[in-house]
Specification:
single chain, alpha/beta, 2 domains, D-Maltodextrin-Binding Protein, domain 2, 328 residues
Amino acid sequence: MRGILFLLAGILCAMGGPASAFDARTVAIKVGYGAGGSYDGAARLVSRHIGRFLPGNPEIIVQNIPGGGSMKLMQLLLGAEPTDGSVIGAVGASIAYVPTLDPATASFDPLELGWIGSLGQGENMCVVNRAANLGTAAAFTGEDFLIGASGKSSLTYVLAALARNALGAKFRIVTGFDGVADIDLAMQRGEIAGHCVASSGDLRTTDLGERVDVLLRFGSATIAGYEDVPRLRDLIGDAALRNAAGVVEASAEYDFPYVLPAGTPEETVEVFRRAFDAMVASPEFIADAARISDIVLRPTSGDELEAIIEKNTGMDAGVLETARTLVR
Protein backbone atom coordinates (compact mmCIF):
# COMPACT_ATOMS: atom_id res chain seq x y z
CA MET A 1 0.00 0.00 0.00
CA ARG A 2 2.75 2.44 0.91
CA GLY A 3 4.51 1.65 -2.38
CA ILE A 4 1.34 2.41 -4.37
CA LEU A 5 0.88 5.74 -2.62
CA PHE A 6 4.51 6.63 -3.22
CA LEU A 7 4.06 5.88 -6.95
CA LEU A 8 0.93 8.02 -7.10
CA ALA A 9 2.79 10.87 -5.41
CA GLY A 10 5.46 10.66 -8.10
CA ILE A 11 2.83 10.78 -10.85
CA LEU A 12 1.23 13.84 -9.26
CA CYS A 13 4.61 15.58 -9.15
CA ALA A 14 5.11 14.90 -12.85
CA MET A 15 1.68 16.35 -13.61
CA GLY A 16 2.32 19.51 -11.63
CA GLY A 17 0.75 18.33 -8.39
CA PRO A 18 2.35 18.54 -4.90
CA ALA A 19 6.08 19.34 -5.18
CA SER A 20 7.39 16.55 -2.95
CA ALA A 21 6.51 14.14 -0.17
CA PHE A 22 9.39 15.73 1.74
CA ASP A 23 10.99 19.16 1.47
CA ALA A 24 12.27 20.01 4.96
CA ARG A 25 15.59 21.85 5.04
CA THR A 26 16.47 20.60 8.53
CA VAL A 27 15.69 17.23 10.13
CA ALA A 28 16.03 16.70 13.88
CA ILE A 29 16.84 13.20 15.11
CA LYS A 30 15.40 13.23 18.63
CA VAL A 31 16.96 10.62 20.89
CA GLY A 32 15.03 9.18 23.82
CA TYR A 33 18.17 8.82 25.94
CA GLY A 34 20.90 11.06 27.33
CA ALA A 35 24.08 12.15 25.60
CA GLY A 36 27.05 9.79 25.52
CA GLY A 37 25.17 6.50 25.39
CA SER A 38 24.82 3.97 22.58
CA TYR A 39 21.55 5.41 21.24
CA ASP A 40 23.07 8.88 21.17
CA GLY A 41 26.16 7.57 19.37
CA ALA A 42 24.03 5.69 16.84
CA ALA A 43 21.92 8.80 16.14
CA ARG A 44 25.02 10.89 15.53
CA LEU A 45 26.26 8.21 13.16
CA VAL A 46 22.99 8.39 11.22
CA SER A 47 23.07 12.20 11.26
CA ARG A 48 26.38 12.17 9.40
CA HIS A 49 24.98 10.16 6.48
CA ILE A 50 21.22 10.06 5.98
CA GLY A 51 20.99 13.62 4.64
CA ARG A 52 22.85 12.50 1.51
CA PHE A 53 19.96 10.18 0.65
CA LEU A 54 17.04 12.52 1.38
CA PRO A 55 15.60 14.95 -1.20
CA GLY A 56 17.36 18.29 -1.02
CA ASN A 57 20.14 16.94 1.24
CA PRO A 58 18.78 18.58 4.42
CA GLU A 59 20.89 19.45 7.45
CA ILE A 60 20.57 16.79 10.17
CA ILE A 61 20.79 17.71 13.85
CA VAL A 62 20.59 15.56 16.99
CA GLN A 63 18.62 16.45 20.13
CA ASN A 64 18.45 14.42 23.36
CA ILE A 65 15.11 13.99 25.13
CA PRO A 66 15.81 11.43 27.88
CA GLY A 67 13.11 10.08 30.15
CA GLY A 68 11.36 6.82 30.98
CA GLY A 69 13.41 4.62 28.68
CA SER A 70 12.42 6.85 25.71
CA MET A 71 8.74 6.93 26.74
CA LYS A 72 8.91 10.73 27.10
CA LEU A 73 9.96 11.00 23.47
CA MET A 74 7.40 8.42 22.35
CA GLN A 75 4.60 10.49 23.89
CA LEU A 76 5.75 13.45 21.82
CA LEU A 77 5.90 11.35 18.66
CA LEU A 78 2.32 10.24 19.22
CA GLY A 79 0.88 13.72 18.85
CA ALA A 80 3.11 16.70 19.54
CA GLU A 81 5.77 16.46 16.82
CA PRO A 82 5.39 17.69 13.22
CA THR A 83 4.49 15.09 10.61
CA ASP A 84 6.30 16.69 7.66
CA GLY A 85 9.46 14.61 8.03
CA SER A 86 11.36 17.29 9.96
CA VAL A 87 11.54 15.05 13.08
CA ILE A 88 12.75 11.46 13.44
CA GLY A 89 12.59 9.56 16.72
CA ALA A 90 15.39 7.29 17.96
CA VAL A 91 13.41 5.25 20.50
CA GLY A 92 14.13 2.21 22.63
CA ALA A 93 13.91 -1.17 20.93
CA SER A 94 11.18 -2.40 23.30
CA ILE A 95 9.00 0.73 23.19
CA ALA A 96 6.60 -0.70 20.59
CA TYR A 97 5.75 -3.52 23.01
CA VAL A 98 4.88 -1.37 26.02
CA PRO A 99 1.10 -1.30 25.31
CA THR A 100 1.15 -5.11 24.99
CA LEU A 101 3.41 -5.98 27.92
CA ASP A 102 2.61 -3.11 30.29
CA PRO A 103 -0.75 -1.56 29.29
CA ALA A 104 -0.98 0.32 32.60
CA THR A 105 2.04 2.40 31.54
CA ALA A 106 0.88 3.35 28.05
CA SER A 107 -1.91 2.73 25.57
CA PHE A 108 -1.15 3.35 21.91
CA ASP A 109 -0.98 1.49 18.62
CA PRO A 110 2.69 1.18 17.60
CA LEU A 111 1.63 0.58 14.01
CA GLU A 112 0.32 4.16 13.81
CA LEU A 113 3.94 5.33 13.73
CA GLY A 114 6.12 5.28 10.64
CA TRP A 115 8.87 2.71 11.25
CA ILE A 116 11.89 3.66 9.13
CA GLY A 117 14.29 0.85 10.01
CA SER A 118 16.79 -0.27 12.63
CA LEU A 119 20.56 -0.47 12.63
CA GLY A 120 21.15 -3.60 14.70
CA GLN A 121 19.69 -6.84 15.93
CA GLY A 122 19.49 -7.99 19.50
CA GLU A 123 22.76 -8.97 21.18
CA ASN A 124 21.80 -8.60 24.80
CA MET A 125 23.45 -10.27 27.77
CA CYS A 126 23.24 -9.92 31.54
CA VAL A 127 26.55 -8.89 33.11
CA VAL A 128 27.57 -8.28 36.70
CA ASN A 129 30.58 -6.53 38.16
CA ARG A 130 33.28 -9.13 38.73
CA ALA A 131 34.12 -7.54 42.06
CA ALA A 132 30.60 -8.33 43.32
CA ASN A 133 31.31 -12.10 43.29
CA LEU A 134 28.02 -12.93 41.57
CA GLY A 135 29.50 -14.84 38.65
CA THR A 136 27.69 -18.14 39.12
CA ALA A 137 24.15 -19.17 38.23
CA ALA A 138 23.40 -19.86 41.89
CA ALA A 139 24.57 -16.40 42.96
CA PHE A 140 22.75 -14.65 40.09
CA THR A 141 19.42 -16.25 40.98
CA GLY A 142 19.83 -16.55 44.73
CA GLU A 143 21.51 -13.36 45.92
CA ASP A 144 19.87 -9.99 46.60
CA PHE A 145 21.61 -7.30 44.55
CA LEU A 146 20.76 -4.37 42.24
CA ILE A 147 20.44 -4.33 38.45
CA GLY A 148 20.29 -0.92 36.73
CA ALA A 149 17.70 0.21 34.17
CA SER A 150 16.48 3.47 32.67
CA GLY A 151 12.67 3.22 32.68
CA LYS A 152 10.11 0.42 32.85
CA SER A 153 9.42 0.75 29.13
CA SER A 154 13.09 0.34 28.19
CA LEU A 155 14.90 -2.81 27.13
CA THR A 156 17.21 -2.33 30.12
CA TYR A 157 14.21 -3.01 32.40
CA VAL A 158 12.26 -5.46 30.23
CA LEU A 159 15.10 -7.96 29.85
CA ALA A 160 16.19 -7.69 33.47
CA ALA A 161 12.61 -8.29 34.65
CA LEU A 162 12.28 -11.22 32.23
CA ALA A 163 15.43 -12.85 33.62
CA ARG A 164 14.37 -12.26 37.22
CA ASN A 165 10.80 -13.57 36.85
CA ALA A 166 11.50 -16.46 34.48
CA LEU A 167 14.29 -17.79 36.71
CA GLY A 168 12.80 -16.89 40.08
CA ALA A 169 15.78 -14.68 40.91
CA LYS A 170 15.94 -12.34 43.90
CA PHE A 171 17.76 -9.33 42.48
CA ARG A 172 16.06 -5.94 42.40
CA ILE A 173 15.85 -3.51 39.47
CA VAL A 174 16.66 0.16 39.99
CA THR A 175 15.30 2.59 37.39
CA GLY A 176 15.90 6.27 36.66
CA PHE A 177 19.16 6.16 34.69
CA ASP A 178 19.42 8.22 31.49
CA GLY A 179 20.81 5.32 29.47
CA VAL A 180 23.34 2.51 29.35
CA ALA A 181 26.31 4.86 29.75
CA ASP A 182 24.80 6.16 32.99
CA ILE A 183 24.05 2.61 34.16
CA ASP A 184 27.61 1.49 33.44
CA LEU A 185 29.01 4.43 35.37
CA ALA A 186 26.91 3.47 38.39
CA MET A 187 28.18 -0.10 38.05
CA GLN A 188 31.77 1.12 38.04
CA ARG A 189 31.09 3.12 41.20
CA GLY A 190 29.65 0.04 42.90
CA GLU A 191 26.16 1.52 43.25
CA ILE A 192 24.62 -1.36 41.28
CA ALA A 193 25.91 -4.81 40.39
CA GLY A 194 25.13 -4.98 36.68
CA HIS A 195 22.70 -4.72 33.76
CA CYS A 196 21.12 -6.91 31.07
CA VAL A 197 21.84 -5.13 27.78
CA ALA A 198 25.55 -5.76 27.23
CA SER A 199 26.49 -6.43 23.60
CA SER A 200 29.42 -8.36 22.19
CA GLY A 201 30.75 -5.08 20.81
CA ASP A 202 30.76 -3.53 24.28
CA LEU A 203 32.55 -6.55 25.72
CA ARG A 204 35.17 -6.84 22.99
CA THR A 205 36.10 -3.24 22.32
CA THR A 206 35.80 -1.48 25.68
CA ASP A 207 37.06 -2.30 29.15
CA LEU A 208 33.62 -3.68 30.08
CA GLY A 209 34.72 -7.21 29.21
CA GLU A 210 37.55 -6.94 31.72
CA ARG A 211 35.29 -5.75 34.53
CA VAL A 212 32.31 -8.10 34.36
CA ASP A 213 31.14 -11.69 34.34
CA VAL A 214 28.71 -12.59 31.52
CA LEU A 215 25.92 -14.75 32.92
CA LEU A 216 23.02 -14.93 30.49
CA ARG A 217 22.08 -14.16 26.89
CA PHE A 218 18.71 -13.51 25.28
CA GLY A 219 17.10 -14.53 22.00
CA SER A 220 17.81 -17.32 19.54
CA ALA A 221 20.63 -15.70 17.56
CA THR A 222 24.19 -16.91 18.05
CA ILE A 223 26.47 -14.28 19.58
CA ALA A 224 29.98 -14.82 18.25
CA GLY A 225 32.44 -15.48 21.05
CA TYR A 226 29.70 -16.04 23.63
CA GLU A 227 28.18 -19.31 22.42
CA ASP A 228 28.87 -20.96 25.79
CA VAL A 229 26.89 -18.37 27.75
CA PRO A 230 23.52 -19.95 28.72
CA ARG A 231 20.45 -18.79 26.79
CA LEU A 232 17.48 -17.79 28.92
CA ARG A 233 14.99 -19.92 26.99
CA ASP A 234 17.14 -23.02 27.53
CA LEU A 235 16.88 -22.51 31.29
CA ILE A 236 13.06 -22.38 31.31
CA GLY A 237 11.52 -25.83 31.74
CA ASP A 238 7.82 -24.97 31.35
CA ALA A 239 6.78 -24.80 27.68
CA ALA A 240 4.05 -22.17 28.17
CA LEU A 241 6.43 -19.96 30.10
CA ARG A 242 9.08 -20.46 27.45
CA ASN A 243 6.65 -19.37 24.70
CA ALA A 244 5.70 -16.27 26.65
CA ALA A 245 9.37 -15.45 27.23
CA GLY A 246 9.83 -15.64 23.47
CA VAL A 247 7.30 -12.81 23.03
CA VAL A 248 9.27 -10.64 25.44
CA GLU A 249 12.55 -11.52 23.74
CA ALA A 250 11.00 -10.44 20.44
CA SER A 251 11.30 -6.86 21.68
CA ALA A 252 15.07 -7.36 21.35
CA GLU A 253 15.04 -8.77 17.80
CA TYR A 254 16.14 -5.39 16.52
CA ASP A 255 18.08 -2.50 18.02
CA PHE A 256 18.49 1.23 17.35
CA PRO A 257 15.12 1.70 15.57
CA TYR A 258 14.12 4.98 13.89
CA VAL A 259 10.53 6.11 13.58
CA LEU A 260 8.45 8.99 12.25
CA PRO A 261 5.63 10.58 14.28
CA ALA A 262 2.10 9.18 14.17
CA GLY A 263 0.17 10.75 11.32
CA THR A 264 3.15 11.14 9.00
CA PRO A 265 1.90 10.67 5.41
CA GLU A 266 2.58 7.27 3.90
CA GLU A 267 4.58 8.74 1.02
CA THR A 268 6.86 10.60 3.45
CA VAL A 269 7.45 7.36 5.36
CA GLU A 270 8.47 5.75 2.07
CA VAL A 271 10.96 8.55 1.37
CA PHE A 272 12.68 7.90 4.69
CA ARG A 273 12.59 4.13 4.31
CA ARG A 274 14.31 4.34 0.93
CA ALA A 275 16.87 6.79 2.30
CA PHE A 276 17.56 4.52 5.28
CA ASP A 277 17.97 1.42 3.12
CA ALA A 278 20.35 3.26 0.80
CA MET A 279 22.31 4.68 3.74
CA VAL A 280 22.95 1.35 5.50
CA ALA A 281 24.15 -0.16 2.21
CA SER A 282 26.62 2.63 1.45
CA PRO A 283 30.34 1.87 1.94
CA GLU A 284 30.91 5.21 3.69
CA PHE A 285 28.26 4.48 6.29
CA ILE A 286 29.45 0.91 6.86
CA ALA A 287 33.02 2.10 7.39
CA ASP A 288 31.89 4.81 9.81
CA ALA A 289 29.72 2.34 11.75
CA ALA A 290 32.68 -0.03 12.11
CA ARG A 291 34.46 2.62 14.17
CA ILE A 292 31.68 2.67 16.79
CA SER A 293 32.26 -0.05 19.38
CA ASP A 294 28.71 -0.63 20.60
CA ILE A 295 27.00 -0.97 17.22
CA VAL A 296 26.96 -4.32 15.45
CA LEU A 297 25.49 -3.33 12.09
CA ARG A 298 22.67 -5.72 11.12
CA PRO A 299 20.00 -3.51 9.55
CA THR A 300 16.28 -4.27 9.46
CA SER A 301 14.08 -2.44 6.96
CA GLY A 302 10.99 -0.48 7.97
CA ASP A 303 8.69 -3.02 6.30
CA GLU A 304 10.35 -5.84 8.23
CA LEU A 305 10.13 -3.91 11.51
CA GLU A 306 6.44 -3.30 10.99
CA ALA A 307 5.86 -7.00 10.29
CA ILE A 308 7.80 -8.08 13.41
CA ILE A 309 5.83 -5.72 15.62
CA GLU A 310 2.49 -6.71 14.10
CA LYS A 311 3.23 -10.43 14.53
CA ASN A 312 4.39 -10.32 18.13
CA THR A 313 1.81 -7.88 19.46
CA GLY A 314 -0.97 -9.99 17.89
CA MET A 315 -0.19 -13.26 19.70
CA ASP A 316 -2.78 -15.38 21.52
CA ALA A 317 -4.28 -13.52 24.48
CA GLY A 318 -3.19 -16.19 26.97
CA VAL A 319 0.42 -16.06 25.79
CA LEU A 320 0.42 -12.27 26.04
CA GLU A 321 -1.00 -12.34 29.55
CA THR A 322 1.75 -14.71 30.68
CA ALA A 323 4.31 -12.48 28.98
CA ARG A 324 3.00 -9.51 31.00
CA THR A 325 3.65 -11.35 34.25
CA LEU A 326 7.28 -11.86 33.18
CA VAL A 327 8.07 -8.15 32.89
CA ARG A 328 6.41 -6.86 36.08
